[in-house]
Each structure stands twice: as structure tokens, then as C-alpha cells.
Specification:
The protein is α/β, with parallel strands linked by helices. It has one domain: Rossmann fold (3-Layer(aba) Sandwich). Helices cover 32% and strands 22% of the residues. It is built from six helices and five strands. It has a five-stranded parallel sheet with strand order 2-1-3-4-5, sandwiched between helices. The longest helix has 17 residues. 28% of the residues are buried.
């Protein structure tokens, strides 16, 4: 992958036509301009706190996370779109977040401004999950050099739909 500046979506729903996907398409209709990563299609091992990354500036695991590292380092705009499960993100996205430990030890120092935005949806009306998720993404931003720009959260989505089209 070259050092070109990219836009990236980390999509973390198993339902590619569900509420979260429809919100993403509605608010960001030009997704063709983004490198779209479906977290459920990635093979990423969870962090085991071996601290290999502290000494070697990379993770001990050689898996799909290497592509995510490149995108996080080279993207100028990041969208994280995910449902909330049990007050947090689904496991595939949590594995990605855990594996950014390498940036905790070795912060990303790109010179251009980088921005991140979060979209969450929750079947329940409890707002705590969105709060927890936003704080997790703020932490990701802190170690990867992104500026957190904001979030959109939708609650009670098990009984709502997003209208598709141009309306």
C-alpha cells in the first residue's frame, strides 16, 4: 500500500443490510471514496498483552490487522460504524481496538490533520453503550493521531428503519 491519503470505514455489523449499514449509506452516500473494511470479514487475533509491540514497534501476530495498521497510519478520515452489543462494540471491532496497543507505545506522528467520526446503533433505548463506545473511539484517536469530530447514535433500532433513497 502506498502512502496515499485514504478515507476508511471500519464497519462492524454482521448485517450488511441492517440499520447501521443503512445509516452509513444515508449519511455518507459516496462510500466508493472510502476503503470499506467489514470487521466481520477480517481474521484478527485478539491482543494477548505479550508486549512484543513495545520492543519491536509492530505486533507479534501476522494477520489481517497489518492492513488495518496501514489504513490507520495513512487515512485522513475514519468512520467507525457499529451496532452496540452488551454496552460495547461487537468482538471483531474490539479485537482491532485492542491491537492498537502498538500505537500506545509508538504514537502515530503523521503531519496532516486526521479526523474520525463514530456512528452507533442500539436495539435498546439505553444510552450507556453509545457513551462507552465513544470513549473507546476517543482512546483510539488519542493513540493514532485522529481528531475525534463527533458521533451519531441511534437508540431503539430494533423497531426502526432507515428509509433508503434520496429523501
Amino acid at each position: 500500500m502506498s502512502n496515499e491519503i485514504l478515507n476508511t470505514v471500519l464497519f462492524s455489523s454482521p448485517r450488511t443490510d441492517g440499520f447501521t449499514a443503512n445509516v452509513l449509506k444515508k449519511f455518507f452516500p459516496r462510500l466508493d471514496d472510502f476503503n470499506f473494511i467489514n470487521c466481520f470479514n477480517m481474521k484478527i487475533s485478539p491482543c494477548i498483552d505479550c508486549r512484543f509491540c513495545k520492543e519491536h514497534k509492530k505486533c507479534a501476530f501476522d494477520d489481517d490487522m497489518s492492513k488495518i495498521y496501514q489504513l490507520l497510519e495513512n487515512s485522513k478520515f475514519l468512520i467507525v460504524a457499529s451496532p452496540i452489543y452488551c454496552l460495547s462494540f461487537p468482538v471483531p471491532l474490539k479485537a482491532i481496538l485492542e491491537r492498537t496497543q502498538v500505537y500506545y507505545y509508538h504514537k502515530n506522528t503523521k503531519e496532516y490533520k486526521k479526523f474520525a467520526f463514530l456512528i452507533t446503533s442500539s436495539g435498546s433505548s439505553d444510552e450507556l453503550g453509545a457513551f462507552v463506545a465513544e470513549n473507546q473511539i476517543r482512546s483510539l484517536c488519542g493513540v493514532t493521531g485522529f481528531e475525534f469530530m463527533g458521533s451519531m447514535s441511534f437508540f431503539g433500532t430494533d423497531s426502526k428503519t432507515i428509509v433508503s433513497g434520496s429523501d
